[in-house]
Amino acid sequence: MKKHIKNNVFWVGKVDWELRKFHGDELSTHKGSSYNSYLIREEKTVLIDTVWLPFAKEFVDNLATEIDLNEIDYIIANHGEVDHSGALCELMKHIPDTPIYCTSNAVKSLKGQYHCDWNFKTVKTGDKLDIGSGKELIFVEMAMLHWPDSMATYMTGDNILFSNDAFGQHLATEALYNDRVDQGDLFNESVKYFANILNPFNPMLRRKLDEIIALNLPIEIIATSHGVIWRDNPMQIVEKYVQWAHDYQENQITVIYDTMWNGTKLLAEKIAEGIGQADRDVVVKVYNLAKSDANDLITEVFKSKTVVIGSPTMANNVLHSVAGFMHLMKQLKFKGKKAAAFGCYGWSGESVKLINESMANAGFEVISEGYRNPWNPDADAQEAAVDFGRTVAAM
Ligand code: FEO
Prior knowledge:
- A hairpin with a 4-residue loop joins strand 4 (21-22) and strand 5 (27-28).
- This protein is an alpha/beta fold.
- Helix 10 (320-331) runs parallel beside helix 11 (351-361).
- The protein is elongated and about 80 Å long.
- The protein has 2 domains: 3-244, 4-Layer Sandwich (Metallo-beta-lactamase, Chain A), CATH 3.60.15.10; 252-394, Flavodoxin domain (Rossmann fold, 3-Layer(aba) Sandwich), CATH 3.40.50.
- The protein has a 7-stranded mixed sheet with strand order 1-2-7-8-9-10-11. Strands 12-13-14-15-16-17 form a 6-stranded mixed sheet, with no helix packed on it.
- Helix content is 35%, strand content 24%.
- Residues 79, 81, 83-84, 146-147, 165, 225-226 line the site of MU-OXO-diiron.
């Protein structure tokens, strides 16, 4: 059901408490999500974005209990991805001629997905739409935040930025506002969203954030399309994005490994011990990749200054879990981070060299030749792993 936001602006989205995977199975969403759609009822009635496809009928049925669908003058499609455009086909069955305002790239993405030729009105940064009562919608292209078709819509008068994916998080809540949810959950999910979705686009993001700040628009509310609406100090999340977009790192070293018969696991623990001995201030975290959520680990990589990756050698190679995770790190284009490698082996022992190559290829600065150990680590090998940890901490 609709929820009042401010004056004549309402939330009409869907809270998805059950969601545990997003983008197919690519992204874990432990705390659900929401698809925030907004209804503006000034002299003109405007719908901003819709919801994910499985909720299309529910969304349109609910909307029809709130208003006569024919009263919708304008639809704004800030982004064509199916979690926001998924109810358009259902909606347009009822109001096929209603204009849809979006970027030219969104026309391509919407036509490409739904094969429909709706009444598109393409807009660019700075274009305005009069909605009556002295208020306007101003469009701001947000290309690569996170699709080429993304844009935000700013509502004058009420000073609301409808930011779509930007500044959102996958967090299901009835509470709706940033000041009414658990702050730990909110920032954990916000940084996870940034690390796993936005990080590859940091150079474009930095330019766009500068552009948004330079517009000097009074922003009282940032109404995202996932998770909470930022009404309490909304610029706090913009400031976080500025930090995160500048090759963010904390004083953290993360050891990530997979293991077959626990030899590489033992090395991981000893390396962590050495890091802790050498630097009492650094945060050291250790994760078995096969027993952890890859997207949570990416968030830890995002926060790290150095990652230490371990794999035993298996058939002249690394374990496939480690190979897949290194692929994911490469895809997310981390910058300014260091890496080191370790692993046990029985016969040929290529894993450390291969990890070094992959991490360099993923954009990390490889800071050592790594540490490899034949068979199970004995007392000397364990002490050597502690030493290796001390070396990593010092670099
Ligand atoms: Fe929430 Fe890019 O869709």
